[in-house]
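[job 4417] fold queue: 2 targets
>>> target A
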Amino acid sequence: MDIKTLFDNAAQIYDQTRRQYIPCFDDFYGTAIELISYPRDAAVEILDLGAGTGLLAALVAEAFPNAQITLLDISGEMLAKAKERFASQAQRIHYQLLDYIHAPIPGRYDVIVSALSLHHTEPANLRITFDKIYTALRSGGFFINADQVLGPTPEIEAHYHQTWLRQIRERGCTEEEINLALERMKADRTSTLDAQLHWLRATGFEEVNCWYKHYRFAVYSGRKKGQNTRRT
């Protein structure tokens, strides 16, 4: 099943188990928000890449009430749920239905964020996607990715997986919910953290760093070269 169909089908129930599927939910998303290095009242333009139902975008919108936020996703059903979420904020929330792997990223942004989307990208395409992200950022802009990473060895990857299964069962996931997650994970094309950080630097990003990691869940960022006057 292709990615678009997979997430179109999951849109209605996608948000229900987010905190269970992501054992480190608060630190994972919280770190991504903290890395947006602008004053909280700044009128910045932010793109949520692979935004889904708008979970990350909602946290960004709450933290940055004057930001203009664009949600980009391949799934129309996911974006439809996002529109329900942001029904009262139509003036500053925008939507783009697009397969960012196979098309340029339109617009220019101060910040591009992404959560649990890029790990669906084949490694050969991920480096190209980083190039697109770099191009879509304004000078001095930030890219922040909260995602899953592949273990650097098969043994470590197996440990990641078994730890995740144990943790989500402890948080009340049923076997049916686990099986749904495992079915979606068949579409994962995860790369190692070291490889992703290397590709970011090779693309031209500066200040590349992983700021948070919990087994397979990681948050990293990079800054486009240049000075962004909106930071102050």
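>>> target B
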Amino acid sequence: DAPPPWKILGAAEYRLGRNQERKVRILCAPDEEQEYSGKLAFSHDARSAVELSANAISPFEFDPSREIELASQDGDALRSGAVVIRNRTSRDRTVEISVPSEIASPDQVTVPAGEEKRIALHTQPGFLGASEGVLSFESEGFRRSIPLRVFALQPVLRIEPREGLDFGEIEPHKRYKGFLRIKNEGGSAARLQATT
């Protein structure tokens, strides 16, 4: 019996006669970057347990690693940001990138051995709201997801008529109505108070 992340390849049950031997193949398939330890146990002799250890190290380093934020730069409708991928291995690696539909990014990028690549991200044109999702990376069995947060575009008000209201010549002591059309073209709600 082998604890996760180890697995016994092939049959885990077998018989051994006197002076017989058997080769047992064990696979280590860690899910996370951390140190692992455990014991390979045998049913008929607990003293024959074999110590297992592994130190799983990610082939990549990400910056930021906890959360990626896309925000507006100078009031621009497109919210943007970036993530840096560092290749910690001794060979070039291709990384597949998956993003939510509201985000634009390359589908894949090749990161040279021991080097890093900056991946630019931005919202799709026409998307103004907020969003929360994940940015996923995959390369030769390695998988990593980083939370992604998109901030809504601030309220952008358009008032018509732009030149203002002209009531023209009016008589004293009479009421005249004028109308303004106010439209929020931003990505978040606007709380308004009109004063004259």
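[job 4417] complete. Note on B: The CA atoms of residues 5 and 29 lie 5 Å apart.
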